[in-house]
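Q: Structure tokens for this one, please.
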Amino acid sequence: MSWALKIGRSLCLAGLILLTPACAAVQGAESKRVMLLHSFGRDFKPWDEYARTIRTELERQSPWPLDIIDQSLVAARAGDDDAERTFAEYLRALYTRFPVDLIVCIGAPAAAFVQRNRPNVFANIPMVFTAVDERRVQFTALTPNDVAVPVRIEYLKAIQNILRVLPQTKNVVVVVGGSPLEKFWKEEIGREVKPLADRLAFSWTDTLSFEQLLQHAAALPPNSVIFWELMIVDAAGVVHEGNAAIRQLHDATNAPIFSYDDTFFGRNIVGGPMLSVPEGSRQAVAVAIRILGGEKAGDIKVPPIRFTTPKFDWREMQRWGIPESRLPAGSQIYFRESTAWERYRWQISGILAALALQAALIAWLVYEHRRRSVAEVQSRNAMAELAHLNRLETAGQLSASIAHEINQPVTGIILKASAALRWLAVDKPDVEKVRSALADIVGAGERAGSIIAGVRAMFKKDTGTKAAINLNNLINTVLALLRLDLQKDGVRIETRLDEQLRLVTGDPVQLQQVILNLIVNADEAMRGAEPRILTVRTNRSTAGTVRVSIEDSGPGIGESDRVRIFDPLFTTKAGGMGMGLSICRSIVENHGGKIWVEAAAARGAVFQFELPATRVHIEPQGLAA
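A: Here is the predicted structure, written as tokens:
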């Protein structure tokens, strides 16, 4: 016996002595004792993931208190028969007096070890073989206390998946180590993928140290892939636990890595059809609970667990340029980077909502602006119509004055014509008197014509006429039209018109209407007041405007009313419509001017308006007083 074997036996006996009191205490608590037998150690992929999930599921599902014990078949790494026998003796010494209720063998080496040593070590203990391919279970050697929850690794299907997602693949590097288990799978993989030998070149890494493997993977030719099977012990005898080996390979290689084992998924492999560790663990635990509950292990039959729905790592797909269109139907994609919409859905929704609200507000404002523009046009048209109606109404009031004004020149024409006829009828006609009478007739006719033209212009519905206007002439025309009415009402007219007044540009009819309305309003305001004085002034301002002032000696306008006097439908008259002054303001503002009212110095009110003066200078004219 070698010195290593002697040391191993001594350690086993020491462990037995130390664990005996603990075993007795557990037995006294009447708990169920379960051994998890690991194939290589507790930290080897993929069996460590099976052990972790099995332990978690046992503790969750078991109705009894559990004492779960871990043991590792370290001898499986090198296939040392002497070490295996020593480990078997250790287990027999440890569990003969205080046997376990169930042994769960995780992985093929543990299953093979138990089947080889069952008669001497575990004769009557129920066994569950899990995380083992059905090709590694000796079904003919199973006892009535044994049940297998096997898997079926379909290597041909896994390689065909590689050709589907990377159809240009020509070289497949299969990563396997030098342990007995890995050598078995090298032969099994080579046998199963023979149908693809004419399309793919397979190479193996069981003769390489891990450092050599990294160098080889970094210099692979184009259209190469790596298929990860196992790397437990490399050719240099170095043991590799956990994810360290595949992680280093992933960082060093220039080719994508594939595997069927989902314990490597999420960090280093592209993906494909895989064995599900959670699914296998749940089935193994379900069987274990049934056995612990008294059911005979040999009566339980479980079909092998096969590949689940293919799944792929989106990050690796992006790295190696694999489009989603090449994936098998129904594939699941994990670790997809969220789009901006997925990451900031609420923020984007808020921004879009704000933009939609802004767009709605803008649309509403545009609509309102359009409505206002239409309303303004309609209002201006209505104002023009009201102005026209106002002129027509004023015509009725002024008809007597117009008839009187026209009657005078017509009467004069008749008298002068009769006189001229008499002078022509005598024997010696007085030519000078006839000439004088005819001249008077012409003057009277011109006066009547101007009166008629002014009246026609005043009541003509035309808003498009623009001309240079002398406001003094407009004032004299209006005063001539209203003179009869003003005299009848006892109004004394005082005019102070600037003889150097500059012209303004505008519609003479509309401006004449403004003056007419203001004078008529002044006349109406003075009824019942004494004395009745109407003062009309024109003058130039320093701002390049022409100002017209119409002052009455009536009772005046209150301060609160002065603020609203030009508003539509506002009136201080009992029968007024409240449109005259509003129309006046509209006309003045449309001519670029402004209109306002102030209290007179003594009493009454002063209505004033200003219009921009033109640059054309006029000669002084004679003005009617």
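A few notes: Residues 1-29, 618-625 have pLDDT under 50 and may be disordered. The CA atoms of residues 6 and 450 lie 148 Å apart.
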